[in-house]
Write a structure and sequence with these properties.
Largest sheet: none
Number of helices: 2
Order of helices and strands: HH
Length: 57
């Protein structure tokens, strides 16, 4: 039973570490500021986008 307890503690520590790392990452990404959408004018000047061309064989 001692081995199972050690595995549970290690798994819990890894889970807490991943949760804290995720929260830090979200805070850093949120700190960058407001998201600015892509300019529509540049998207329309491409002339068209081919979607799914690889599936039409």
């Amino acid at each position: 039973m001692q081995k199972g307890k050690i595995v549970a503690i290690i798994t819990g520590a890894i889970s807490i570490f991943l949760a804290v790392a995720y929260l830090i990452l979200v805070q850093l990404l949120d700190f960058r500021g407001e998201m600015v959408p892509a300019p529509i004018g540049q998207l329309l000047s491409i002339g068209g986008v081919v979607v799914g061309a690889g599936f039409l064989q």
